[in-house]
Design a protein that fits this description.
Length: about 475
């Protein structure tokens, strides 16, 4: 039995300003409108039976958005979410997932580990490689997927292949190599014995856990303890396991490559010939867009004058360029990126600086996803902030209170059910409003069948998002 395990995390630094900490790369939509997470989930479903389970390891904050994406896929496989309190790299995520799979499906299960932010469009070829890897895994191997290199790429790690293990191209692994310089990458390409390291794996559950016990016993022991202190819950046909925070954060922050794959003698590789991209930079993303006769690629309403080899992306404004070459221009509601194409890997430096300075743009967009819907910041100034709030049908915000701000709500679409000071409930219709003073317990709810749209005007001495005390919440966010 193949159990796909999707690793969905990341800090969203290399594709800023579209990708943020609160909206990382897996949620980034491709030119066809589907997110990378959607595509990964649909691809995972092709690798296992309809009555199987697909495991997703993700941050607790990303659970509801992931759940919405999976429900839109309308697949038969049942999802199981393993919710991390914070990111701890791939080794802890894989160790906990392996323990959970063994608990439910036994030692003979084979886990297929897939990052959520990879783009693979040739699904049949990928499925064939997975079947090959599963055969090797079942024979007692930790299998990694290598990609046949097409260029001396310096941005990827490499795998040096060893002796053949079967007639289909499976080989042992001699060593893993960090990202090489250009000259070394050219030598690797010429040798024909090196593959790109894709970061995808196929393991027998009993083997990966016994090897972790051998080479990373501190990690495997903590993973076992963490899962013992956590419990799987079911809600509406969806299973989720919220990991015990205290034991989880004690696990070392280490990749599965360092913790296990570079240590074990039972590692094999399967060469993949399917198309693959880790969408690791704006240059990788722009390659998905056809170029015009001047080498420009456009995802925006734009006017390009004497412009060449430039990528323009915006869904907000008209973009005009005059006399520029070899640029990446990305426009969002609250931030614009302008970079030379050969410097896009340094975008993360800008994100790190924003984070160091405490600027919200490293973490959140102007429009923020919430379990109940979204909110967008329309205007912000001293002692005032204006938001557009959308609440999905049947959804409701937490019962909450603010110490430093009052809120004035104007309903512009739908009907709002308002709770004020816990027990006083009322319905507010379209074009009506209500006022919530600071210190009042209150809740906003959508009892209708269409989206509820509310304009919220906040006023007070402090308007930060952390001025919130939750008393009750259907999404488990009470603190």
């Amino acid at each position: 039995m193949i159990i796909p395990v999707i690793l969905s995390g990341g800090a969203g630094t290399r594709l800023w300003p579209i990708s943020r900490e609160g909206h990382p790369k897996p949620f980034l939509k491709m030119p066809d409108g589907q997110s990378l997470l959607y595509k990964t989930y649909a691809r995972a479903a092709q690798c296992t039976s309809p009555d199987s389970v697909i495991v997703t390891v993700t941050n607790r904050e990303h659970y509801f958005q992931s759940k919405d994406i999976y429900q839109s896929c309308k697949l038969k496989q049942k999802p199981l979410y393993i919710l991390e309190p914070e990111g701890r790299n791939t080794a802890p995520a894989i160790a906990v997932a392996a323990e959970a799979i063994r608990e439910q499906f036994g030692d003979s299960a084979v886990m297929l580990v897939m990052p959520a932010d990879h783009l693979i469009q040739d699904t049949p070829c990928f499925v064939a490689s997975v079947q090959h890897a599963a055969q090797l895994a079942s024979s007692g191997k930790l299998v990694t997927f290598g990609l046949v290199p097409t260029a001396p790429e310096t941005g990827f790690g490499y795998i040096e292949c060893g002796v053949p293990l079967d007639d289909d191209g499976g080989k042992s692994v001699e060593r893993f190599v960090e990202k090489p310089n250009r000259e070394t990458a050219e030598d690797y390409l010429a040798s024909g014995n090196f593959l790109w390291n894709s970061g995808m794996f196929c393991f027998p559950v009993d083997l990966v856990l016994s090897e972790l016990d051998e080479y990373a016993d501190d990690l495997s022991g903590l993973a076992r303890t963490c899962l013992e202190k956590s419990s799987v819950q079911d809600s509406g046909g969806v299973s989720f396991c919220e990991l015990d925070a205290e034991s989880f954060v004690e696990m070392p922050d280490i990749s599965i490559d360092y913790a296990l794959m570079e240590q074990s003698s039972e590692v094999a590789c399967v060469p993949g010939t399917f198309d693959w991209s880790d969408i690791g930079s704006w240059n990788a993303l722009k390659e998905l867009i056809p170029e015009d006769e001047d080498g420009n690629r456009q995802q925006a309403e734009s006017i390009l004058i004497d412009t060449s080899s430039t990528y323009v992306m915006s869904d907000q404004r008209l973009i005009a360029t005059v006399g520029v070459d070899d640029l990446v221009i990305v426009d969002t509601e609250d931030a614009i990126l302008v970079a030379k194409s050969d410097r896009v890997q340094d975008v993360k430096k800008a994100v790190h600086k924003l984070k160091k300075e405490g600027h919200e743009a490293h973490k959140l967009h102007k429009t923020v996803m919430r379990p109940w819907g979204t909110y967008s910041i329309l205007e912000e100034g001293p002692r005032v902030k204006i938001k557009r709030i959308m609440v999905k049908p049947g959804a409701k915000l937490s019962l909450q209170m603010h110490h430093h701000r009052s809120e004035h709500w104007i309903v512009v679409q739908g009907i709002a059910k308002i709770t004020d000071n816990e027990h006083k409930e009322s319905l507010v219709n379209t074009n009506e409003s209500t006022f919530i003073p600071a210190g009042h317990k209150h809740r906003l709810e959508n009892p209708g069948v269409i989206d509820l749209i509310v304009i919220e005007v906040q006023s007070g001495e402090y308007l930060g998002e952390d001025d919130i005390v939750r008393f009750e919440d259907k999404y488990g966010r009470v603190i």
